[in-house]
Amino acid sequence: MGRSPCCDKVGLKKGPWTPEEDQKLLAYIEEHGHGSWRALPAKAGLQRCGKSCRLRWTNYLRPDIKRGKFSMQEEQTIIQLHALLGNRWSAIATHLPKRTDNEIKNYWNTHLKKRLDKMGIDPVTHKPKNDALVSTEGPSKSAANLSHMAQWESARLEAEARLVRESKLRSSSHSSSSLHHTLIGTSAVSSSSSSAPMIPPSSLSLDHAWNNGSSISTTVNATRVSDLESPTSTLSENNAPPINITSVIEFVGSSERGTVKEEGEQEWNKLGYHESFTHLGEYKDGKENSMPFTSSLHELTMTMATTWGSSTSGAHAHAHVAEEGCFTNLLLNANSGARSLSPQDGGESNNCHDNARNSGSGSSNADLYEENKNYWNNILNLMNYSSPSDSPMF
DNA sequence: AACTATATCAACCGCCAGACA
DNA sequence: ATGTCTGGCGGTTGATATAGT
C-alpha cells in the first residue's frame, strides 16, 4: 500500500523561496509555532507543501543556525565523525551546534570528500586508497572493531535523539505555542551553547548507565530504557565499548571552548595540529585543555584495534576499557593522545593507551601505529598547508 | 565579451520508522 | 493486526555563481 503524498501537489509552488514566503513562514511560526507541518501552509497562507516549509525552516530560517564558512575545527570534527558514523548527517549535525545536516552534507560532498580523495584517502573508509596494511590478526580486525564501535555509537545517538524527542514532547506539553518553546523543542541538541547541556536531564540515567556498566549487555538491561535498541553486532558483546555520552558531548563542547574564529579565519597551524603530530612526545605547555582537540580518530581506531583485538576473550582488558571509557576519553584526551601516539615512546599515557600497549600483540600493532600515524599526518599536514582560501585542491 | 566548465548549495524526492486510529 | 499519517533522513537534482578559455 503506497502512502499518500504529504499534500496535494496541484497548485503548490516549488523551487526557491521568496522573501515574502520566508516572512510569512517566520511570522506564522513566531506566533503559533510550527505545530503540524501538514496544516501549516494553509494556515500561514503559503502555497507550499508542509514538507517544503519544514525544510525551509530547519535548513534556513531557524534562528539558531550558523551560516558561513566552516571553521577548521568544524572540518576536523566532520571528518572524524564521518569516519565513525558514515553518512549519518543528522547524527553528525548533533555534534556541530548550529549547523544543519543538509549544510554538513553539502560541505562534505563539495569540500571534504574531494579533499580526502585528492589526498589519496578513500572518503568512505577513511583509509589510504592503496592501503596494503594487513595486520597479523587479519585485515578486517580493526575495521570490524571500528565498525562495531560505530554501531554502538549509532545506537547511542539514536537513543539520545529519542530522549531529546521525548524531552521535547514533555516540554511542549507544558508550553503554549510560543516560538520560544518551539525553538527549544526543535533544536534541543543542535542549538545548545557551550554553557547549556546538549542533552536533556532524562538522558543522564542513560549516560550513567553507559558509563558505569561493566558490559554492554548488563548496561542496557540496567538502563531500562525501553526503546534503546541494541544494534545487531557482528562481534561478541564483550567486545563492545561503553559509550560515554557526557564525554562525547564534552568533546564537542571542548571544541567550542577555544576561540573559534568564524569565516575560515582559523588555520591549522594555529590549532597546533601540525606540531602535535610532528613532534610527538612533546607537550607544549603542560596545561590540561590548553591544546586544542587533536586526538585523531585513526589513533582511536588504532587503540581500539589493539585493545579490543587483543581482548576478544579477555575480560581483564575489557574491564579496563569499560571503566575508563576509552573511546570517548580518546576523543577527549587530546593531550595524552598526542603524547602517546607511538607505541614505543616512553612518555606519559593514559590508561587506554596503557591498555593498548599492554595488551597489544607486538609488531603488528607497531606497524598499525605507523600506518595510522602516517595516515593522519598526511591529512593534517596537507590541510595545514592548504587553507581553504588558497588550497590548491579546489 | 561570449562561451564553457566547474563549484556551490538550496530544495526536492523517495524511503523509512514511529505514532495513531 | 493493519493501514494511514507524519516527521525525519539521506541521496540527488538543478539553478545560480564563479572560474577558465
From TrEMBL:
<protein>
    <submittedName>
        <fullName>Transcription factor MYB16 isoform A</fullName>
    </submittedName>
</protein>
<feature type="compositionally biased region" description="Basic and acidic residues">
    <location>
        <begin position="121"/>
        <end position="130"/>
    </location>
</feature>
<dbReference type="InterPro" id="IPR017930">
    <property type="entry name" value="Myb_dom"/>
</dbReference>
<dbReference type="Pfam" id="PF00249">
    <property type="entry name" value="Myb_DNA-binding"/>
</dbReference>
<feature type="domain" description="HTH myb-type">
    <location>
        <begin position="62"/>
        <end position="116"/>
    </location>
</feature>
<dbReference type="GO" id="GO:0005634">
    <property type="term" value="C:nucleus"/>
</dbReference>
<keyword id="KW-0677">Repeat</keyword>
<feature type="region of interest" description="Disordered">
    <location>
        <begin position="338"/>
        <end position="366"/>
    </location>
</feature>
<feature type="domain" description="HTH myb-type">
    <location>
        <begin position="9"/>
        <end position="61"/>
    </location>
</feature>
<dbReference type="GO" id="GO:0003677">
    <property type="term" value="F:DNA binding"/>
</dbReference>
<feature type="region of interest" description="Disordered">
    <location>
        <begin position="121"/>
        <end position="140"/>
    </location>
</feature>
<keyword id="KW-0238">DNA-binding</keyword>
<keyword id="KW-0539">Nucleus</keyword>
<feature type="domain" description="Myb-like">
    <location>
        <begin position="9"/>
        <end position="61"/>
    </location>
</feature>
<dbReference type="InterPro" id="IPR015495">
    <property type="entry name" value="Myb_TF_plants"/>
</dbReference>
<feature type="domain" description="Myb-like">
    <location>
        <begin position="62"/>
        <end position="112"/>
    </location>
</feature>
<dbReference type="InterPro" id="IPR009057">
    <property type="entry name" value="Homeodomain-like_sf"/>
</dbReference>
<feature type="compositionally biased region" description="Polar residues">
    <location>
        <begin position="338"/>
        <end position="353"/>
    </location>
</feature>
<dbReference type="InterPro" id="IPR001005">
    <property type="entry name" value="SANT/Myb"/>
</dbReference>
